[in-house]
Amino acid sequence: MPESPEVQALAEELDSRLAGRMIADVDVLEFRVTKTRARPLTTLVGERVVGVTRHGKLLDLDLDGSEHLVVSLGRHGWARWRVEEPTDAAGATDAADATSADGGAAEPPPPALVALEFDDGPALELTDAGGWVSLGCWVVDDAAEVPAIAKLASDPADPGFGRGDFEAVVKDRRKQLKAILQEQESIAGIGNAYSDEILHVAKLSPVVHGATLDDDEVGRLHDATVGVIRSAIDARRGVPIHELKAAKVAAMRVHGRAGEDCPRCGDTILDFSFASTTAQYCPTCQTGGEVLPLKGE
């Protein structure tokens, strides 16, 4: 799932390349993407992009007709610039002939569900690699009309994100820390991957409740949240959007690294079941040696 550091880098690239350009055509290839049926995406034709910003994990294309195109990338959504594939003499495209590093067939690119054509430069395609459609688009007068934006809490990337506000949503909560970090009504922009990273840096168990934390632990969690998110945004800034997902994976210390050595203590990173997914942690650094349950064991 795209999270705030990658979505911020995406928003900045889109802003730099789309600001001032007019939408010449909109092609919606999957009708379920449109969440405002009374205001379809095709109504944006002729509008010019003023700028692109981020709200939590959502994109906001501000248009000169006082409209906003809000995009939720969901669990498997992303964006790419359309590139016309060169063909050889036989008429086969490079993509069709692509092979993976081990000589097998390369994984096909995710399908484009929406394509935005502009008056100059390449088209922007919104994609979804999941087995179900998680990408969503809204045409609204104000981005806050989108429920997912209206409920957003403070963002750790914002300079004004202070410890007092953080304590208010963490301390005395009878809820697991990992769930709090991923709860957009409490802290904006964090998902499964960065919550694992934050808790590892803070040396805290993902399953302990906020109500059990002392002042020192709350302070560590606050500093880790701000530090991990802001440093990740700085690291992703300027990375081409087609490389952002790989850059995120490569930067992870514990998330997605079950079976590898913990970079801090050398113990083995383990999986555990959380909600409907799997997450990772270090038992030595975070749980005092306790092994958290993994579904099916």
UniProtKB/TrEMBL annotation:
InterPro entries: FPG_cat, FPG_N, H2TH_FPG, Ribosomal_uS13-like_H2TH, Znf_DNA_glyclase/AP_lyase, Znf_FPG/IleRS. Residues 87-108 are annotated as: Disordered. Keywords: DNA damage, DNA repair, DNA-binding, Glycosidase, Hydrolase, Lyase, Metal-binding, Multifunctional enzyme, Zinc, Zinc-finger. Residues 253-287 form the FPG-type domain. Its cofactor is Zn(2+). Residues 88-106 have a biased composition (Low complexity). Residues 2-133 form the Formamidopyrimidine-DNA glycosylase catalytic domain. It catalyses: Hydrolysis of DNA containing ring-opened 7-methylguanine residues, releasing 2,6-diamino-4-hydroxy-5-(N-methyl)formamidopyrimidine. Belongs to the FPG family. This is Fpg/Nei family DNA glycosylase.
